Amino acid sequence: MYQRLRILASPLFILFLVLLLVNDFYLKGAFHNALTGKISDFSGLFIFPIFWSAIFPKRKALIFIATAVLFTFWKSEYSTGLIQWMNPYFGIGRTVDLSDLMALPMIGLAWLYTKSESRTAIPPAFMLRLSTYLIGMVAMFAFCATTQPRYIQAFEQPQYVLLKHPTLKNFEPYYGFQFYKKDSLLVVKIDYLYSNRPARSDDYNKNKNIQQLDQDVLSIIGDSATRIPFGTITQLTIQTEEGTDSLQFNGGRLDGPLVRTKGNTRVIEGFYKMGLEDATWTLRDSSSNERVVQTFVNGEKTQVKQYSGDKLKSSSKVNTRADTIFNTYVQLAMLTLAVAAMCFLLYRNKRTAIPKSLKLSLLWKLLICFLSPLVVWLFYVGIMLLLMNYDEDIFEAIATAMFIFIAVCPFMFIIVFAFKLAKEIDVLWYCLLFALLLSIFKTYTMLEALSS
């Protein structure tokens, strides 16, 4: 059995596996271009059939053929119905791009690689078993992680762009867009956009996503429409499923008042400044006297008030990006003080225990070393939830747990077997210390992303 698994510990398999992980967890987010999309396809098509044919060697030919067929189906528009059926149960995302099929020759390369006798693997037998099982688990994780859905930027208020279209076609709604024809003009209603996952889902990030909304929409639909020059004022009325929207555009962007009526009731009243909400917005319930008044500054919501008739029911302040950055600095200071407190407690316990130390059996020492990472992970999740900064998806959570085990376990071996524990409570303090240090790193990384 282990002989056929040796390929999972071979250099080229590991190289493409690492490339797939680095691309999905860093390069895509940092660069988000055509190259990063192709890296996942090329790397995945090499390691995927090799991995499964190592597990099921008698089905090798079927696995390689099925990989090619399923990849082609997955990248075509014919798989859309299947993905829509699966989305309520599994978070799956993919982009229809037939140019991805250029990666199909990697399956042939993978087939030749499995036939090659020149590849090397990691000896000896025990290390081979350990490495192949570990690499196998990482490969399974990589296959799942590469299908993570893209972040969806939704819009709380109606969002439109205006394009000039001399040869109008019969547009159908797709990709979060709805199209309305007005003479030689094309009005595009944007329900949502796909974008990179943000450091924080807030109005600042929303504003960043729509800085050049008309240009971005034009590049997405890829049609013969053109942008309208800035300074051209256009007033339109659009009939939608949500109501009748009265709009004003400056060039291709909303600029001026927006009013949505439903029946005889104005359900939304607001003002746009080049696509960004500005000043005060009023949202009414058409079936009652309830209304919500929202205040915006430079496109960022700062306050929300709820009224029942003329009576104020509640009022709440909303953090802007600047407020979030300030609060994150405060959190970093609190975490640093907590680390200092843990270090003081450990130092005090060590000093009061000299020359004695805690006596533990070998079994207990091993249990402490191997179970501590789990405790550290639980502390870390608890701290981040307490700070309202925990937004990891399932794949990031697994990656964090793996990192904690790899980092904490060796340290605990050093502490337990070499440095010695002073008191039983020190196990808890060390776990909390590691969790605090990880929380500081995570919070600082978030602060850098928020400030950039």
UniProtKB/TrEMBL annotation:
The name this protein goes by in its record: Uncharacterized protein
Coiled coil segments of this chain: none
Transmembrane segments: 7-27, 39-56, 61-78, 98-114, 126-143, 329-347, 367-388, 394-415, 427-447
Organism in which the protein naturally occurs: Sphingobacterium zeae
Cytoplasm keyword on record: no
Record keywords: Membrane, Transmembrane, Transmembrane helix
Presence of keyword Transcription regulation: no
